[in-house]
Amino acid sequence: MINVEIDLNADLGEGFGIWRLGDDEALLDVVTSANVACGFHAGDPATIRRTCAAAVDRGVAIGAQVSYRDLAGFGRREMEVDPEDLCAEVLYQLAAVDGIARAMGGRVSYVKPHGALYNRICRDPGQAEAVVSAVLDYDRSLPVLTLPDSAVHEVAAREGIATVTEAFADRAYTPAGALVPRRSPGAVLHDPGTVAARAVRMATGHVVTAVDGSQVPVQARSICVHGDTPGSVRLARAVRESLAEAGVALKAFT
């Protein structure tokens, strides 16, 4: 009998105004944690409110998906931001989403940076420190979700901030354990069977097959399926069903 608990998270609330991206309602019936866009890469007040309310109704944990200020680029363009400014912008986003979540009867229980900011702080201690400082200013009890080899772990540990490791079922990996850049062919996986099988191996075998065929160790408490990936609901359902069949318990990490 496998005794493993895994959180299943997805990026949600990424519409803006009349534009909708993904099926938040359907995904909230599948995942255990929702990374809610904070308005800097996507999301607007009404979308944030609607997403938080739906998450609370389903008992899904709410995370603040903080980002660079980049609506036009969906937060996927790397930017040079002064650390003090970045700290303030992350703090702003945290406070906004947590305020709305509390008004809906919930609260933000973790932080997950988005896109270019997520990747940048994995390798840049200076930018990681700015994000961690914002968490420290707002609520030091909030853990930060990041990759296993991320620079965030050391920076956060110095400040007494917890970190949680995650893996990506629908993304390709390099032999070094990093995510293949989205602009590269095959960076995003779309076949439900393939994605689900990778999730099970990540959860039970702690390994993922890299693009060169090598086996990369991966220790993760949470597995992500992107909400903006075409067919994301089908992917998430396949992942959840396969994990359950493998004896893995689905449970939020917060």
Radius of gyration: 17 Å
Q: What share of residues are in beta strands?
A: 15-25%
**Which runs of at least 5 residues are low in confidence (pLDDT < 50)?**
none
Name the average pLDDT.
Answer: 95
Relative helix content: 25-40%
Contiguous helical run count: 8
Give me the strand/helix succession.
EHEHEHEHHEHEHEEEHE
* Measured distance between first and last alpha carbons: 24 Å
How many beta-strand runs?
A: 10
Can you walk through the features of this model?
With 254 residues, the protein is of the alpha/beta class. The protein has eight helices and ten strands. The radius of gyration is 17 Å and the shape is globular.
Features:
about 15% strand, alpha/beta, 5-oxoprolinase subunit A, two-stranded antiparallel ribbon, about 250 residues, hydrolase, 5-oxoprolinase (ATP-hydrolyzing) activity
Compose a concise summary of this entry.
This protein is α/β, with parallel strands linked by helices and 254 residues long. The protein has helices spanning 24-28, 45-58, 83-103, 115-123, 125-138, 152-159, 192-205, 232-245; strands spanning 4-12, 33-37, 61-65, 108-111, 144-146, 163-168, 207-209, 215-217, 222-224, 248-250. The radius of gyration is 17 Å and the shape is globular.
